[in-house]
Design goal:
The complex is a heterodimer of chains A (265) and B (253). Chain A has 9 helices and 7 strands, in the order E-H-E-H-E-H-E-H-E-H-E-H-H-H-E-H. Chain A is of the alpha/beta class and 265 residues long. A 7-stranded parallel beta sheet of chain A has the order 3-2-1-4-5-6-7, with helices on both faces. With 253 residues, chain B is an alpha/beta fold. Chain B has 8 helices and 7 strands, in the order E-H-E-H-E-H-E-H-E-H-E-H-H-H-E. Chain B is globular, with a radius of gyration of 17 Å. Classes of the chains: A alpha/beta (265), B alpha/beta (253). Chains A and B meet through helix 5 and helix 8 of A and helix 5, helix 8 and strand 7 of B.
Amino acid sequence: MAGRLEGRKALVVGAAGAGNMGQVIARRFAAEGARVAVAGRNRAILDALADEIGGVAIECDFSKRASIFAMVDAARASLDGLDIAVNATGWGLLKPFLETTEEEIDKIYALQLRGPFQFLQALIPAMEEKGGSIIQISSATATILFHDHDAYMATKAGTDHLVRSVANQFGEKGIRVNSISPGVTETPMTADAAAVPGVMAAFVKGYPLGRYGTSEDIAAGCVWLASDECFMTGQNLQVNGGLTLRANPSKADIEASVVAAMAAA
Amino acid sequence: MGRLDGKVAIILGASDPRSMGAATARRFVAEGADLVLAARRKDAVADVAGPLGATAVACDITDENDLAALAKMAVDTYGKLDIAINYAGIEGGAPIIETTADMFRQQADVHFVGTGLFIKQMALAMKDGGSIITASSLTVLVQAPGQGAYAGSKGGADVLVKVAANELGARGIRVNSIAPGFTKSAMTDAYFAMEAVTRAFLKEMPLGRFPTVDDIADCALWLASDEAFVTGQRIDVTAGQALRRTPRMDEFA
């Protein structure tokens, strides 16, 4: 049976961490028949993934404009076109609002707002002849709240609005632009927190469907957004089991859950 | 292998081959689902169901007994119910100052009360989780003049969707809505015959073409499949029109 992305050419940036969301998305795209370029900062990990899925590895520092534009050019050249682009880069900064430093704000702005802005600037010319689907990984926290996550949440929410604006302007070129919002997910970004007993358990009650999501759930959402079956643009898709209908745990909830888990151990 | 192999689905609002319901039925059958199709007019829905090998049932969404019987038909015929989709709707355009109490009530009866009872009866019949999908509307998103009663009742139903999703997640049931844009279907054929209307609408669609019933069917397939870890959401299939606006009546001249 033909895959749902047969013959498509896709770029996934943020795929240079073993087992991260970008890697899961890239593997799923390849399994659906797409030719995939994977990008990020760690060459060795990218090469291994590219070998595994028959794709292409491209180094990119998403906080540098020239690197972003060079990545898009390289992807288009090596894949002989570009139909799909996913930005799965991110920095899960957890820092109390009053303690967040200027350096941290600048760094997360560069990665999570300026980078996506420039990625879109690079992608529109690369896709405007044939059209395409651009997918930004956002976060449920761009809509609902989480403690000590202000800089992260603000830049994600800003990017979601950028997605609307760019979708509105370039839809006529056949380019769809959407974002997809996971809730808490077990990925390398959350591995340190997840290693503490009780932390992940504190999140579960916020999920009407009774579990938090996986990178595979997000990859499945990306396949739909990327395929011709999706006639949607300028939207923020919540793929998080209904989390936004409830809430993330408070800091006190998490601490209590950790205490309970320690006591039970 | 189909994406809905082994699934049993109900689609309400499939009395016309040009409808979203019929398009979704064709897509679902192609993906391997067993189907019960329903509409108020039994003879009309039977004509759509026949060639697809689907079961046809008469059902008025405003009658809770009809909805319970519809769910029971799926379970009796195919052993279970996994997916239930509601496209039942009626037109009801009028400016607010000309809308009578009866007009408000008729819209609320079909779109709000009907959707609530649909979710209730379908959820009661789903014993092993499932996916419930109901039709919202572009009019909910763009403050469409002349569509107050229609949009208000559809918007109310979207809130029901969110509350139902929050409640029914524990049963493994996902509840979502689809907001179609100005889609060429059985219900909108008359509007599509007026070029001034289609021209005014097309101008407000970033993607540059009208949504089709097949686009809606594709979206329903995704929401229906086990792949969508999504609940309590309204999925926009408006060609991006919700980013802009809806034309006013005076622009149709």
